[in-house]
Design a protein that fits this description.
Helix content of chain A: 55-70%
Shape of chain B: rod-shaped
Oligomer: heterodimer
Distance between the termini of chain B: 56 Å
Number of helices of chain B: 1
Strand content of chain A: under 5%
Largest sheet of chain A: 2 strands, antiparallel
Order of helices and strands of chain A: HHHEEHHHHHHHHHHHHHHHHHH
Shape of chain A: globular
Radius of gyration of chain B: 19 Å
Largest interface: A-B, 47 and 36 residues
Structural class of chain A: mainly alpha
Number of helices of chain A: 21
Mean pLDDT of chain B: 84
Structural class of chain B: mainly alpha
Chain lengths: 373, 46
C-alpha cells in the first residue's frame, strides 16, 4: 500500500497549478469552443506531463533513463518540424485562392498585417529576451499555429510551450480582439465604405500555376520559407489540379486530423511545470496579444493610407483580415461590415485578404529565419 | 530593458517587413501577368 501512495509525496504545488491550467484549456475548448482541436489535446497533455515522475515524458530514475512516449513523438514530429509541415499540406488543400486571384491587391494587406510580428520581435528584445527567442515570440503574430511551431522550433526556443499556447489562444480570440482594435482606429464613415464587386471566376490554368509560381518566387527570395510555402502550395496544387480528388479529400480531412491529434498532445511536453511556470511565460502571453493587436493595426492603417490616394476606396476593416487566422478573421470583418450596413457585403474582399495573410505569414516566418539565423 | 538588443532588431524588423512587401509585390505582378495571359480562357474556370 505504501508503494502505491509513495508518489503522492512527490506532488508539488506547481504540478497542481499546471493541472488547473490544463483544466482551463480543456474548459475553453469544450465550453467556449476555442480552437478545441488543439487546446483540448494541449490541456490534457499539460495534465499528463505534470504528474510526478510521469511515464509519458522521459525521466531519469535511479540513474536509469526511461524514455517517455511524448518525447519520442516530439523528436519524431516536432523537433524535425515534420508535423507542422504535414499540417501545411492539409491547410493548402483547404484553401481556395480564387478571391485573391481575382483581386490580387489584397496581397498587400497580407503584408501589412504582419507588422505585429516585427513590432513584437523588437519589443521582446527590448524586454530582455535573447534575439532568437524574441523572433520566436514575434512569430506568434503570424496568427498561424504551424508557422509558430516551425519557427520557434527552428530557433530551438525554450519557450515553445508558451508560444504555442499563446498563438492558439489568441487565434481563438480574434472575434474579440479585432473588432475592439478596429473600432478604436477607424471612423464609422470608414467602416461604411462599400467596395466594388470583383468577378469570382478564374481560369483553371491560373489556379494550377499559382501554387507553382508562389513556391518558386518565395523559394528564391526567402529560401528558408521553402519547406513551409512548398508544403502549403503542394496541398493547394493537389486541390486544384482536378485529377487527385481522393488525395485532396484526404489532405483536407484525415491528414490534418491525424496530425492535429498528435501535435496537440506532443506540444505538451514543453508544458512541464518547471519550464512553463515562469515570469517569461506570462510575458510571452502579453506579447502575443500585442502581436495580434499590431497585426490588426498594420492592416487597417494600410487601408487608410490607400484611401488617401485611391479613386476606388477600400474599407480599411478589410486590411485587418491580412492576418493568417483563416477563415475566422474574414468572417469577423464581414459580420462587422453587416452590423454597420446590412447591405455591405465585404466577404469576398475579406477572404482575399485573409488567404493573402496565409501566404504572407509563411513568408514572414521564412524571412525572419533568414534574417536572424 | 535591453536597448542594445532592441536596436539590433530594428534593422532586421525593417528589412523583414520590407521584404514581405517586395515578395508580395512580385507575386502581385505575377498574378496580374498570368491573368492577362490567360484572360481569354476565362470560361474554362472549373
Amino acid at each position: 500500500m505504501e508503494l502505491i501512495f509513495a508518489n503522492l509525496f512527490n506532488l508539488e504545488l506547481q504540478h497542481v497549478v499546471m493541472w488547473l491550467i490544463g483544466g482551463i484549456l480543456i474548459y475553453l475548448a469544450i465550453k467556449k469552443d476555442m480552437e478545441p482541436t488543439l487546446l483540448l489535446p494541449i490541456g490534457f497533455g499539460a495534465i499528463l506531463v505534470n504528474l510526478p515522475f510521469s511515464g509519458a515524458v522521459t525521466q531519469v530514475i535511479d540513474g536509469v533513463t526511461e524514455v517517455g512516449v511524448l518525447d519520442v513523438l516530439f523528436n519524431a514530429g516536432i523537433a524535425n518540424e515534420l508535423f507542422p509541415l504535414l499540417l501545411f499540406i492539409g491547410i493548402g488543400a483547404m484553401i481556395d485562392f480564387t478571391p485573391l486571384l481575382t483581386n490580387p491587391k489584397m496581397l498587400f494587406f497580407g503584408a501589412a498585417a504582419q507588422f505585429g510580428i516585427f513590432f513584437t520581435f523588437s519589443l521582446a528584445a527590448l524586454l530582455g529576451f535573447d534575439i532568437k527567442d524574441a523572433a520566436s515570440i514575434g512569430i506568434i503574430g503570424a496568427a498561424d499555429g504551424p508557422t509558430s511551431i516551425f519557427v520557434a522550433n527552428y530557433f530551438n526556443s525554450k519557450y515553445l510551450g508558451a508560444i504555442i499556447v499563446a498563438a492558439y489562444s489568441y487565434m481563438a480570440l480574434v472575434p474579440i480582439i479585432q473588432p475592439f482594435v478596429i473600432r478604436r482606429i477607424t471612423t464609422r464613415e470608414e467602416r461604411l465604405i462599400r467596395m466594388e464587386n470583383v468577378k469570382n471566376t478564374v481560369p483553371r490554368i491560373v489556379k494550377i500555376l499559382f501554387p507553382i509560381f508562389i513556391t518558386i518566387i518565395a523559394g528564391i527570395m526567402a529560401p528558408r520559407s521553402v519547406a513551409l510555402i512548398g508544403f502549403l502550395m503542394f496541398g493547394n496544387l493537389i486541390r486544384e489540379c482536378g485529377v487527385l480528388n481522393i488525395l485532396s479529400e484526404t489532405a483536407q480531412k484525415e491528414l490534418p486530423n491525424l496530425i492535429t491529434i498528435l501535435l496537440g498532445i506532443t506540444v505538451a511536453t514543453k508544458m512541464q511545470a518547471e519550464y512553463f511556470l515562469t515570469r517569461e511565460t506570462f510575458m510571452i502571453l502579453g506579447l502575443g496579444l500585442v502581436a495580434f493587436v499590431f497585426d490588426t493595426v498594420g492592416g487597417v492603417l494600410l487601408g487608410k493610407f490607400i484611401n488617401l490616394f485611391a479613386k476606388n476606396k477600400v474599407n480599411p476593416m478589410v486590411g485587418a483580415c491580412g492576418i493568417s487566422a483563416f477563415p475566422m478573421s474574414a468572417r469577423v470583418i464581414h459580420k462587422m461590415g453587416l452590423e454597420e450596413d446590412p447591405h455591405n457585403f465585404l466577404l469576398m474582399h475579406a477572404v482575399g485578404a485573409n488567404v493573402a495573410g496565409q501566404i504572407a505569414s509563411v513568408i514572414a516566418g521564412g524571412l525572419i529565419m533568414n534574417l536572424v539565423a | 530593458m535591453n536597448i542594445d538588443g532592441f536596436l539590433q532588431t530594428l534593422s532586421i524588423a525593417l528589412r523583414g517587413l520590407g521584404g514581405i512587401f517586395i515578395v508580395m509585390g512580385i507575386i502581385y505582378l505575377s498574378i496580374k501577368l498570368v491573368n492577362i495571359f490567360f484572360a481569354d480562357n476565362g470560361n474554362n474556370n472549373k
